[in-house]
Amino acid sequence: MEIIESQVAFYKTQEGRRTSRGFERQRYVLQDDGTTCLNVFSVASDLSINREVTINLDEHWLPIDSYVRIHHGERLEGAGWFRFDDGSIESQVQQPGEGLVQRQVKFDDGPAVFCAHPIATDALLAAGCSRQQQDAVQLLPQVFLSSPHHFGATGPELAHTQLEMSYLGVEDVTAAGTQFQADHFRIAAGNEKTGHTHPGEDIWTVKDTCIFLRAAIVALGYEYELTHFQRQDC
Predict the structure, then answer these.
(1) What is the pTM of this model?
(2) Cα–Cα distance between 120 and 116 in angstroms, integer?
(3) What is the pLDDT of residues 67-88, one digit of tens each?
(4) Residues 96, 84 contacting (CB under 8 angstroms)
(5) Nearest CA among 160, 183, 168, 67 for reference residue 113
(6) pLDDT beneath 70, residues of the chain
(7) DSSP 3-state of 195
(8) How far apart are CA 59 and CA 36, in angstroms?
(9) Is 143 exposed, middle or buried (0-12, 13-18, 19+ CB in 10 A)?
(10) How many CB atoms lie within 10 A of CB 60?
(11) Which residues are CB-contacts of 147 (< 8 A; sequence separation ≥ 6)?
(12) Are 12 and 222 contacting, i.e. CB atoms less than 8 angstroms apart?
């Protein structure tokens, strides 16, 4: 078993001025059977959002199940559990005034990927993008979210979208004082085909994994920088 603990700083650059807008603490537990447990505590201070997320992943970095808790301002928005099986997703979420809401969605268009809105879970979208098709725009038809809001300010609730994503190859990336070989992915801005309005995002992961290293949403001036990265064999 291997444990990786990392921290990420959130920044926004506007009119030449760079300001802090939050942080994230991430822990990956890589089990000997190939599964991974990712635990994240994420704070977007400019949006008054904090969330705690745990996701269990199979050997291909695809979701098995997930717990998501969202706090917006002074209000607990809710908490929920999501379970992924072959061709279906089940969710049970509790929101103020709504009680327990259960839902099941079935699909048959290949594997599903899951993003719960911490930046570490954006990197998990790479599990749906083939590294064998460099530079090609690939459609990810089964992308599930814990909130339909771009930055996860609502929910949790099961939401579906599709993304266009490209694998741009291997690059050397220096992060947290360490040099990594990284896989570079790009999520395209939304269009009529995908039906969403996200402005697009670049993501770098540790090569051949979905472990977060760096991200940028250029259109918004957002940058996500790794400030701490520590491996421990157990």
Answers:
(1) 0.94
(2) 9
(3) 999 998 888 989 999 999 988 9
(4) no
(5) 160
(6) 109, 150
(7) coil
(8) 7
(9) buried
(10) 10
(11) 70, 117, 153, 154, 155, 156, 157, 159
(12) yes
